[in-house]
TrEMBL record:
<keyword id="KW-0804">Transcription</keyword>
<feature type="domain" description="HTH gntR-type">
    <location>
        <begin position="8"/>
        <end position="76"/>
    </location>
</feature>
<dbReference type="InterPro" id="IPR036388">
    <property type="entry name" value="WH-like_DNA-bd_sf"/>
</dbReference>
<dbReference type="InterPro" id="IPR036390">
    <property type="entry name" value="WH_DNA-bd_sf"/>
</dbReference>
<dbReference type="InterPro" id="IPR050679">
    <property type="entry name" value="Bact_HTH_transcr_reg"/>
</dbReference>
<protein>
    <recommendedName>
        <fullName>HTH gntR-type domain-containing protein</fullName>
    </recommendedName>
</protein>
<dbReference type="GO" id="GO:0003700">
    <property type="term" value="F:DNA-binding transcription factor activity"/>
</dbReference>
<dbReference type="GO" id="GO:0045892">
    <property type="term" value="P:negative regulation of DNA-templated transcription"/>
</dbReference>
<keyword id="KW-0805">Transcription regulation</keyword>
<dbReference type="InterPro" id="IPR000524">
    <property type="entry name" value="Tscrpt_reg_HTH_GntR"/>
</dbReference>
<dbReference type="GO" id="GO:0003677">
    <property type="term" value="F:DNA binding"/>
</dbReference>
<dbReference type="Pfam" id="PF00392">
    <property type="entry name" value="GntR"/>
</dbReference>
<keyword id="KW-0238">DNA-binding</keyword>
């Protein structure tokens, strides 16, 4: 019988999938992410779970939040040079 994959909290899966979309070029620097509500609906979870994933990506510099505007993919090219 194959081993069960380790349990992954949903916030971690959301974080990983957003990072994968950025790495694949699906989400590009400056692109606006869907709203917390839209992501919560997509993942069939609460806004709290989505916010945890997004806040960790903001802290890591992958995303940037703009109060009252939304969350965007950060332009990391400036950080590399």
């Amino acid at each position: 019988m194959p081993a069960m994959p380790p349990y992954e909290p949903l916030w971690r899966r959301i974080r990983r999938e957003i990072q994968a979309k950025i790495a694949a070029g699906i989400l590009k620097p400056g692109d606006k992410l869907p709203t917390t509500r839209e992501l919560a609906d997509e993942y069939e979870t609460s806004g709290v779970t989505v916010r945890k994933a997004v806040e960790l990506l903001i802290e890591a510099g992958v995303l940037e939040g703009r109060q009252g505007v939304g969350v965007f993919v950060a332009d990391t090219s400036e950080q590399d040079s």
